[in-house]
Structure formats: C-alpha cells, structure tokens
Amino acid sequence: MKAHQQLAVAKHLVGVSYPLLKDQKLLIGAVHNLFSAINLALEAILQQDGHFVPDSFESRYALFTSKHKAKKEHLELLLTIKELHDLHKNSAVDFPRHGSLVMCTEDYRLRTLAVKDVEEYVHRTEEFLRDYKGLE
C-alpha cells in the first residue's frame, strides 16, 4: 500500500540518510512523508468503510474520528504530524541549530524538530498503520 511506502521512505530518511549526511532538512522531508502516509491511510480506511473520501485532511480526519474509536495517541499523532507539515509549509524561515531544525513563522513563533522526535513519529505512525491491519 502507498501509505507503507511513504512510511518506508520516512524511515530511510531518519535511519539511513540523516546519520550519514547530518542534514536537518532531511527531518522535515521525513515529516512530509509521514503526513503523506497518514493521509493515504485515512483515505484507505474510509474507502474500506464505503464512505465518500473527502479531499482535505481536515475532512478526512473529522469523518475518521466520527466513525472510528481510535486511540487517543493515534489522534494526537495525526494532528501533530499535520501541524508540523503545515508549520513548515507556512514558515517564513527555517534553519539548523544544534542538530535540530528550527522553523519560524511570520509571527515569530518557533518550533524545533529534533531527530529523536521524528524517530518517535515514525514509530508511532508504524503503530497506527499496524492497528488498522486492512491497510496492507
């Protein structure tokens, strides 16, 4: 499934590419792949249920939460990945700092993204996909 492919790319970026290159931009690349994976997973889950699949993540998330009793950890993960994806997309500037990627919005709100955080997101996304076995 496409969601598993996106997850595999994120795992490779964090587990292989980042340790070799030490380029913090790879971390946000992994986050974008995780976002794609969860978005595709939500689409697959809703299709399996026979629902019309909305185009936007927000609509998919709302429909998913209304039809499924998902674990609180999974719901928090989905929103965190979406927030990081949007923050980077809308950030005025981002820069590396002490092994992390710092993203800054136009209103000077800062968010730091460290490799350990992305590794945790990869692990939690694996759990999310595993809990919905029909996604294979």
Key terms:
136 residues; mainly alpha; 3-stranded antiparallel β-sheet; 5 helices; 67% helix; globular
What would you say this structure looks like, in words?
The protein is mainly alpha-helical and 136 residues long. The protein has one domain (2-77, 115-135). The chain is built from five helices and three strands; from the N terminus they run ααααβββα. It has helices spanning 2-21, 25-48, 57-67, 72-90, 115-131; strands at residues 93-97, 100-104, 110-114. The chain has a three-stranded antiparallel sheet. β1 (93-97) and β2 form a beta hairpin. α1 (2-21) packs antiparallel against α5. The radius of gyration is 15 Å and the shape is globular.
List the helices and strands and how they pair.
Layout: H1 2-21, H2 25-48, H3 57-67, H4 72-90, E1 93-97, E2 100-104, E3 110-114, H5 115-131
Antiparallel strand pairs: 1-2, 2-3
Helix pairs in contact: 1-2, 1-5, 2-3, 2-4, 2-5, 4-5
**Spatial shape:** globular
State the separation between the terminal residues, measured CA to CA: 6 Å
**Integer count of domains:** 1
Low-confidence segments: none
Radius of gyration: 15 Å
Strand order within the widest beta sheet: 1-2-3
Number of helices: 5
> How many strand segments?
3
Average pLDDT, all residues:
94
The biggest sheet, with number of strands, parallel, antiparallel or mixed sense and barrel status, is: 3 strands, antiparallel
Strand content: 5-15%
Topology pattern, helix = H, strand = E = HHHHEEEH
Q: Which structural class best describes the helix and strand composition?
A: mainly alpha
| Share of helical residues | 55-70%
